[in-house]
């Protein structure tokens, strides 16, 4: 058992608001061992939010004028420091969030990739030049920063998601305030320590810990916040979207998925099996891109289900820090109960549990929040487990008899984040690419595994039309200005006459 990390807010270049054990403090615990306190962190209030917003507003005036290539050099340095600290961060993440070490390393690696990719944008941030209607005039567009950005992030990717948001925001000339999830304050603190070590000027990046409904809400409602970038649940996303609408803020929402993997009768079944196991049970199913529906052609369903059962039966549960395990814990008691409730709902609505379905309590598992990897059969498309995001190690099997039926069922949800089709038929592959309603489609690959230089986000209720990562992140964190330069020395005739 290690000593808890004492986390503080980072405001205007200073570590502030030391939490006391007695009051105004919260703790994060190891989800594989609830007796282990990983971190103690402040329960920030409105005064902390006001201080962070004031610092970010003040810093914005000079940061936006730092040349973009120079802003990018700080982010490049963050990437180098993340690389140097990768193992330490991954170990901490495994303890605080529970994901297996290999996955935690992948999470940090996404942050590193994002740093180097975003830093490259500092030397691009391309605008356009375009002909003017006048002879002695130039016309062009430039990207302008938006201002002070609130970044509200979940616990499932405690390094990657804050990096996806903060890095492009800073390269574009904005200043930021991060409000991380209550479950992962230590990861956020270590990440911001790295940003601070890269020498960013005071106020450019700020960290405020606390409760979503207090600190997060205060940030979203604050009149001096210009943009909110949010990843999390549909319910909180709806509040964030509505509040930003009422207070005229820019807003970018990413609210999860109900992702499906289709396996057709001509698929390479071993390949599809790897995809299904990793997609459904990787990160204990706690990914917005997780495979929560397996749409199986009736000709291969029985064989594939048996293969899946055998693999699932051999998965080992345990602490993410133990290199011999496959599946870590669920993040907290509330999420554990939520997953359990969905199993009860599935049963009530007529689904059959082929394997799993219970909270796992064998041996040391009793000390953590473990749930057995679960396969639900005889699921019909209108059941709640086929429509709602569960965010746990649960996958629903749905049988289909044609490719058209598979695509129709895949599309039949309110979400539209990730999707996958396993087939050897090129015509089906291209039809899937065209007809699937999702922001991401994989052919012969699992629904998870996004790369940072491609747009990330979804259609329908997954989001509000924005895409993180890739060059599309620049569209979130900048606004266009059209610039006309008249070098005629007089008001041009056509302009007065409206060209007539
Ligand atoms: N799309 C995705 O990647 C994710 C989706 N989810 C979905 O959400 C479900 C619930 O998970 P949960 O962690 O509660 O998700 P939330 O949406 O509640 O949390 C996401 C972030 O929003 C903050 N927050 C909560 N309430 C407010 C508020 N009123 N105003 C501003 N910020 C707020 C949270 O802070 P705090 O942690 O302090 O509550 C956290 O930082 C999961 O079961 C899953 O379905 C969850 C995580 C990631
Ligand atoms: O699995 C992926 O491709 C990325 C997942 C992710 O970012 C998320 O679940 O929030």
TrEMBL record:
The keyword Protein transport does not apply. Belongs to the aldehyde dehydrogenase family. The active site is at 254. Gene3D superfamilies: Aldehyde Dehydrogenase, Chain A, domain 1, Aldehyde Dehydrogenase, Chain A, domain 2. Pfam families: Aldedh (PF00171). Residues 24-483 form the Aldehyde dehydrogenase domain. Keywords: NAD, Oxidoreductase. Its EC number is 1.2.1.3. Homotetramer. This is aldehyde dehydrogenase (NAD(+)). It comes from the Bacteria.
